[in-house]
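To whoever is covering the structure queue this week,

Two jobs came back overnight. Logging them here so there's a record in the thread.

Job A:
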Amino acid sequence: MRNLILVLGDQLDHTSAAFDDFDSRNDAVWMAEVEEETTHVWCHKLRIVLFLSAMRHFRNELIRSNQQVEYHQLEKDPANDRGRTFDEVLRRDAKRLRPSRLVMVEPGDWRVRKQIEAVASERGIPLDVRPDRHFYCSTEDFAKYADGRKSLLLEFFYRDMRRKHHVLMDNQQPQGGQWNFDHDNRKSFGKSGPGDVPPLKTFLPDVITKEVIELVQHRFSGHPGNLDHFNLPVTRRHAKMFLKNFIDNVLPQFGDWEDAMWTDETFLYHSRLSAPLNLKLLNPRECVEAAIEAWQSGHAPLNSVEGFVRQILGWREFIRGVYWLKMPGYLQMNHFDHQRDLPAFYWNGDTEMNCCRQSMQHVINHGYSHHIHRLMVLGNFAQLWGVHPQRFHDWHMAMYLDAVDWVSLPNTLGMSQYGDGGIVGTKPYCSSGNYIHKMSNFCEGCRFDYRKRVGDDACPFTTLYWEFMDRHYELLKDNPRMKFPISNVTAMRHKPHELRDIRARAEELRREWGGLSGKAMNAGSNSESMHFASTLRGMP
């Protein structure tokens, strides 16, 4: 064998650089389903099904195009596996197949890249790691961009990307006369609610997907989530239909309502394209071009189109650049020295806080919640609670369909938990219950009062927000974007009884609700462990 082409589960792209100069007579494609990728974090059942089904469909497409495929498939009985990790399976296959060279595109996970590099070195096989053309900005170009800069600000990077790729530009000026329309994209629904939201685009499971669902139900039955309604795109053809539905039916109102939340509404006006994008079933360029065409044709307003483009051309490219620029040390960053585990409701959604219960039901039922649920509800609470940022990242990797290490880590440890001390975001993204009240109807009927800082009915977000600000006063007082809340804390410090009561209530909550890691839940993922989780929360 000349080349063994390694294709990982988030690299399902027929135009990948890995296939450049592919010779079907002398080369083969290697793909592997391995247990470690479902258990190193306690993976959501839907996430396992999405990855495995998409991989098997991609394998079949390769075979139909007369390419030789060496595929390791998970079986119902783990004893039939050739190994638990990528390096174990690859080591055996490299010995058996004896390729002259291993070829792969840059992986999306530092850990996996190091595993594969170790096997290549051990076996003495050259490893050709090729750039990932899926992205607009290569890791080398981002490193050049970052070199010599005191700080990495998304806004400046985004503008450079717009200019470089001539996206939404009028010569050297932005279309519409401004670079972003973020100020216009923060509306809340008001008392009337969202009205009739656009219909979902869904896909019935085919034979391959049904086989994977059966496998996951049998082998990973104790994992979180449920598989009652798997309806996701697992092929490129379906992913393109998914994109078309967003452009046609959802994009026109995306901008106005992208930050809004509402009871029992999971998707609202969001694209849900992150999962097929991150599996490479879609290319970011076709998403951006389709959105711009919708604006040019008058189908969608500029604020919606620019907001969508910024998520892909700006934020998605920016955090990938940060990931590869800062790894492996980035994973160890913990600016606030937070050490706690997540409260158990992050695994089962069982909490009296309506906003967190709503957000977690989205995650449990769909492996998804939109970015405000992630950042300003679940991420916000974890930061205020004092969760170790790496544990929050592990939870996100476990529970979200679109989680791949390169995209998850800077979003969770950096943006959400401020664990990097300001590399990704210029301030901690934290708030009291007032923000949630403003952007949703979750506070109506909740047993907690978002206005109260202390007392049994005080909103835990509000209590913990002021306790967080006081606890990290010295780290936050010189941040210009925290000037207003810090001035309030300074005033509160002249009334020590008020802060004393806030601290006491925060500690009471932590004692009552405890904390539980995904590893602990996974170790006993049965009714007994769920009873243990309830006990930790102080519930019957």
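Job B:
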Amino acid sequence: MNPFALRKNWPVLTILLCAAMLALLAGLQFTWTGQVSQAQASMMQTALANSIRQFEQEIGRELMYLLVLFQPGGRDARSEIWDHYAESFAVWSETSSHPKLLQRLLVYSVDGDQHWSLRELPLGENRSVEASWDGELASVRDSLENADRGPIGRDSRGPVWRLIPAARAIVRPLPPFDRPRRNPNRPPRFTPTGHLILVLDWTYVTESILPDFVQRFFAGPGGERLYEVAILTRGGDRFLYSSDDSIDSAWLARADIHRRLRLLREFPSRGPGPPGPLDPLRRLAIDSPRGNRPREPEGPSQRGRRLLSLGRERISIVGNRLPVDLEIAASHVSGSLAGVVDRQRARNLATGLGVLLLLGGAMALVVVSARRASQLAGMQMEFIAGVTHELRTPLSVICSVGENLADGVVGAGHHAKRYGELIRDQGQRLTEMVEQTLQLASMESRNRNLNLAPLDATEALQTALDHARPMIDQAGFSLERGERHDLPMVRADAKAVQQILANLLSNAVKYGEPGRWVRVETSTAGQGAGAEVQIRVLDRGTGILAKDADRIFDAFYRGTETAEKNIRGSGLGLKLARELALGMGGNLSFRSEPGQGSAFTLRLPAQPETSA
């Protein structure tokens, strides 16, 4: 590439390079933000699974503590069984974090005459009372009677805890009292003499225990709830607990996680020996590792129920002849984890995009500023050229007239008067140009001080017309007036108003060809503090082109037709007029149609009326 062309086009090349860098950064940000969002989604999913695991462990720990504490001794005498359970409840009420979890304790047992009876131990007492299969206990009786291993009380597989959700009860067969020594050559057979029934207070569970656990394991660092949780039967046909009343099947369908609820883990059985309810408390291993004990193979004897091995103890969750699986579901309070991640990604992308746009905007501002600086430099050069041309004309005339006077070419009389007028007019032109240049400098440096005071707008307009009348008549223009004579006083600077009106009338004459017509109108608008006086100057000239309309008030700018028609001027008049109007709290605006003329309107704030 030509070095000269490279040096000339380096700004464009720099801009293109910066734009390519911004595009590259945008692509990398989009890719990296997607990767971060995927990692965040994985972390949140793992955190939610850990919360559910802790939730399960905490509930299972409390439930297993209850089961361990109330498991009967293998050689308890029938007369001692109620003392044993009374002591177990006393320990439970003193050591459990949620003693109200246990609502009722019943025993369904057979006596020596093979008669079955249901008795209840009132909590806090050591004497049993007779009970009946009332309310939800009927489902417990149905479950026991429908056991798949024959008559009630006969189960060759040993003691099995049964969780019956319909009754909120946990049932365990009681071992035989004073059972004979087992023949090692015969297969073991467990023949229960009754059933222990523990009824849980589900209202307390749903109103106290579960909300506490949900708040503990599904909340953020500040304690705010992050997830809604529901516990239901597998398949979603029945909700056992929900952390919010709005949870329904639709919520369940879009939940972030579904998993089988595993509340019960292995704990060691006490085994045969004398009764001692405090012994299991001291050697509890609720969180003992799973997999250390051999699992029983599934077979026909396990059909219709699900067994969880607990060493020598087992738990079966049963319903009406069929297994009942529990499920836990959780979803983010804002809708879903995917939605949270997507919104976070959108925020990250928006933030990054905003930064990139800010960089791009800064780059664009630099380019625009450079272009404006270049344009300003060009206009300044045009201004210098225009001013030089404007100065050359009157100076040439003054010099020529002075030479004629010095040479004695012109004598007294009419010619001397004519030369005097020329010197006066050209001197005035030079004075106007110098004044405009000084005013522009003072406006740009903000050193312009306006003397705002009440001013009669009608009188100020009349003064401006009196000064402009010779110029209008000399140019052969006709002047029309459509004024109101009841205009209110305005708060303005008299000299500034005169200069603005003089500029507008001068422009109307300069650019009023071919109409040769000028009209001045006055009116009022607004009320109260927003009242204003409007002075409008109209002409029937060629108008202002659309491409020049946006820059008509720029310093040093002169329209296209102005340069083509060689109309004299410096391009400062309208700029100064508008700045003066704004400095007085008013404004200067225009409307124009090419070929139809233009209308410039000066708006000045009316002087507020003061009460006498």
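Note for Job B: The CA atoms of residues 147 and 609 lie 102 Å apart.

Please reply-all if you pick these up so we don't duplicate work.
Q.
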